[in-house]
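Hi both,

Apologies for the delay on this - the queue was longer than expected. I finally got the zinc ion-bound model through. Below you'll find the protein sequence and the ligand SMILES exactly as submitted, and right after that the structure tokens for the full complex including the ligand.
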Amino acid sequence: MPELPEVEVTRQGIAPHVEGHRIDGVTIRNRALRWPVPEDLTQKLTGSLVKTVGRRGKFILIACQGPVHHGTLIIHLGMTGTLRIVNRDAPVRPHDHVDIHLGGARLRFNDPRRFGAILWHSGEDTTPLESNLHLSSLGVEPFSAAFAGEAGGRLLYERTRGRSVSIKQMLLAGQIVVGVGNIYASESLFRARINPKIAAGRVSLARYQTLAEEIRQTLTAAIVKGGSTLRDFVGSDGQRGYFQLEYFVYDRQGHACRICKTPVRALRQGQRSTFYCPKCQRY
Ligand SMILES: [Zn+2]
């Protein structure tokens, strides 16, 4: 499943081919994604100029200005979605559900399992984009000022006082900070030496400062790595795999901890696997 780094690398990969270009058509082959692709999307988008390609959590936000309509295309990759730039003559493959036409190129959305989504937030809507149903409950961005420096640790600390939910599940819920998915929760908790089972409300401010720093570092490393390995957003015809970092604990159950050689353990928390070192992560 794409996590925030893959979504950010996708955003960076497609942006130069999309920003400043005019949309001259839309092909929808299958509307039945996680939520139906809006009936009037072609009408809303055709003739629009793409202003910016942004991101909020794992949603890619494509701001469009048309002669009549303006608004934001909201795209989520779900479990198996990809966005690629292809030539307009590129053969259509299975699961290529939606094409946005940009002159000679197409922004193509492929999604075998169809848990992804393509939605439209109208600029004429009285609700601002950040209050959109899909975006309003998201926590702060890990690279925003609200999570920078000591603000990140303080935010985690203040928002978790009195909470008995485990720190791992608090991170996964994404209500305080977004983008710490299953891989990066295990990895950043290991790097901060925090036990994933501890109640979020029992973690000290100093520990949260360390954790916030490790969250930023693990996500940054993944984005840098992804940016260097996944250049091929243009004309790619193979399925690109999601990038693999050298993990400390994630998916390493039974293998020796890279720091202390103790076997890495796995446990289930809220139906998701957590990986940790029982010696390095005692607190
Ligand atoms: Zn260890």
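Main takeaway for now: The chain has two domains: 4-131, 145-276.

I'll put the files on the shared drive as well.

H.
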